[in-house]
Write a structure and sequence with these properties.
By secondary structure, the chain is an alpha/beta fold. It is built from 7 helices and 9 strands; from the N terminus they run βαβαβαβαβαββαβαβ. It has one domain (8-240): NAD(P)-binding Rossmann-like Domain (Rossmann fold), CATH 3.40.50.720. 47% of the residues are buried. Keywords: Oxidoreductase. Belongs to the short-chain dehydrogenases/reductases (SDR) family.
Length: 246
């Protein structure tokens, strides 16, 4: 399929896990891909090489999403390199856990900077480059809707903020033909949350389908929203969670 032929995409945090799966799927659909990474240049390079092997242009930009100047520079570099920026996927995130009393201001500030401020500022910068049919897609979390384990208050709060951002931006950008949507993945098999990890059995038990998702299954929904097939979807919060929140 080439539903995204000629489109230019930026995926933040695109060197591994869901971000890498999204970058590869959108490249398979015909898009040129830029991705940001904080650490792990080797992983980012590998994703870039895979995208180029598909026949698409690719770019990796080292940028800490907690640093506004670096994030905004990545947006502008994407648009300059590809001559456009049509699709932004806000994927980069941090996953703080722990008892309420042990969470300090530094951890609070970084979580809100990466999980809330960065998607807002990246969206703000990206839409300056977008024409009609632009897309802003953010990756949230199922725990924004159902925090079944203790120690998730800060993370859940940060991901819940994306619901308000998505709905507000959808209203504001709709007249410009830009859609804005939010995907809430459920348990997904990645290196940070493997399907055979120590807590996997308990986590799986909360899903209706009784299994983890593959990262490619999350990417498939992102691809739909990014394409013309998703042109009438905006302001939506879509759970791809195997029934975790059912």
């Amino acid at each position: 399929m080439n539903r995204l032929e000629g489109k230019a995409v930026l995926v933040t945090g695109g060197s591994r896990g869901i971000g890498a799966a999204v970058a590869l799927r959108l490249a398979e659909e015909g898009a040129d891909i830029a991705l940001t990474y904080q650490h792990g240049a080797e992983r980012a390079t590998k994703v870039v090489e895979q995208i180029k092997a598909i026949g698409r242009r690719a770019l990796a930009v080292q940028a800490d999403s907690a640093v506004p100047a670096a994030l905004l520079a990545a947006v502008d570099e994407t648009a300059e390199t590809f001559g456009a920026l049509d699709i932004l996927v806000n994927n980069a995130g941090v996953f703080p856990t722990g008892p309420l009393e042990e969470i300090g201001p530094t951890e609070i500030d970084r979580t809100l900077a990466v999980n809330v401020r960065a998607p807002f500022m990246a969206s703000q910068a990206a839409v300056r480059h977008m024409g009609r049919e632009g897309r802003v897609i953010s990756i949230g979390s199922n725990v924004a809707e159902r925090a079944v384990f203790p120690g998730l208050a800060l993370y859940s709060m940060s991901k819940t903020a994306l619901i308000g951002m998505t709905k507000g931006l959808a209203r504001e950008l709709g007249p410009r033909g830009i859609t804005v949507n939010l995907v809430h993945p459920g348990p997904t098999d990645t290196d940070s949350n493997p399907a055979h990890g120590p807590n996997a059995a308990a986590i799986t038990g909360f899903t209706a389908l009784g299994r983890y998702a593959e990262a490619a299954e999350i990417a498939a929904t992102v691809a739909h929203l990014a394409s013309s097939d998703g042109q009438y979807i905006t302001g939506a919060v879509i759970a791809v969670d195997g029934g975790f929140t059912a």
